[in-house]
Amino acid sequence: MAKSMVGNSRIGISPSVIVGAVVNGKANYITLGQYSGLSMNPPMVCISTRKAHYTNAGIKENGYFSVNIPSDNVVQKMDYVGLVSGKDTDKSGVFTNFYGAVDKAPMIEECPVNMLCKVDRVVDLPNYDVFFGEIIETYVDQDCLTDEKPDMEKINQVLLSGGKYCHVGSECGNAFSDGKALIKK
Amino acid sequence: MAKSMVGNSRIGISPSVIVGAVVNGKANYITLGQYSGLSMNPPMVCISTRKAHYTNAGIKENGYFSVNIPSDNVVQKMDYVGLVSGKDTDKSGVFTNFYGAVDKAPMIEECPVNMLCKVDRVVDLPNYDVFFGEIIETYVDQDCLTDEKPDMEKINQVLLSGGKYCHVGSECGNAFSDGKALIKK
């Protein structure tokens, strides 16, 4: 396979998530493509957001943020809250807000999965704040459960691939299983 | 929409990536579902890997790792290198290795996208090392380019959704565009 060196940009699909925070006493949301799990135990995630964003101060002040996983019903609104800043635009009414154990980060009724996160630390990069958060509570729409467990097919998560929002497609393997055939006894 | 609180686990799709490192002088690989972009400028990513893993010492010693984006041709091998440890198993011959600007992290010929990363810092979590890396070089298979740009459709990235490896599916929106219709003039 011939390879081309194409610079040093990141290429690949990202989960696109809507991050909720309370900023200046109001619910605010921002869309981020820089989000990952970090740890199973304790359950931790990170988000990375440009220092210029309005949301950052609210997360630092309140010590909480939420991660809301989008399905295709919220694509247009997700894109909108990523385009306009809370500095100029009140985004508190874009979604139906709800709150969990603490009222320090709003979550989105219209998203099938919501995770309330407590800030563990903030890692300072040149132009970004990287927030590490411990998941305190995870909410799932009841109609996205099968046998009381989250069902990824029903959740129907939307991803960011290049400049397109995309559905998940067909299965092509079983994790922690397909590779067993290659283990030499 | 009725919600259920289902504990505090992370729910959602992850990019599954194969991370390359030189460990004890040999190419070694591990599969991780904890990977994200952090910054566009400089281009940075993070990976999080359990402290018990064999790979961590090699990344720390050499100061480099690679992120290899899988397509469906490597699913079984990706799963395999995630199942067996370099402590017991020599994984240097599983893929066709190549090296970029430095010989401190192997990359995988069979993966359509490869990013050579220089460690920026290691963030210490209770059970995980979180490596922040600056992307030094990005390689793409020439047959995954269209007009010399990476083509996500040709790259055909595989994701991890629940316990399944999955293709990307149909488009459902345009990022940085669909939300414009909601902006009030």
Tell me about this structure:
Chain A is mostly beta strands and 185 residues long. Chain A has helices at residues 55-62, 75-83, 152-155, and strands spanning 3-5, 14-15, 17-23, 26-32, 35-39, 44-50, 64-69, 97-98, 107-108, 113-124, 128-141, 145-146, 149-150, 159-161, 164-174. Chain A has a 7-stranded antiparallel beta sheet with strand order 4-3-7-10-11-6-5. In chain A, strands 2-14-15 form a 3-stranded antiparallel beta sheet, with no helix packed on it. A two-stranded antiparallel ribbon of chain A has the order 8-9. The longest helix of chain A has 9 residues, at 75-83. Chain A is globular, with a radius of gyration of 18 Å. In chain A, 50% of the residues are buried. Chains A and B meet through strand 1, strand 2, strand 5, strand 6 and helix 2 of A and strand 1, strand 2, strand 5, strand 6 and helix 2 of B. Strand 11 (128-141) of chain A pairs antiparallel with strand 1 (3-5) of chain B, so a sheet runs across the interface.
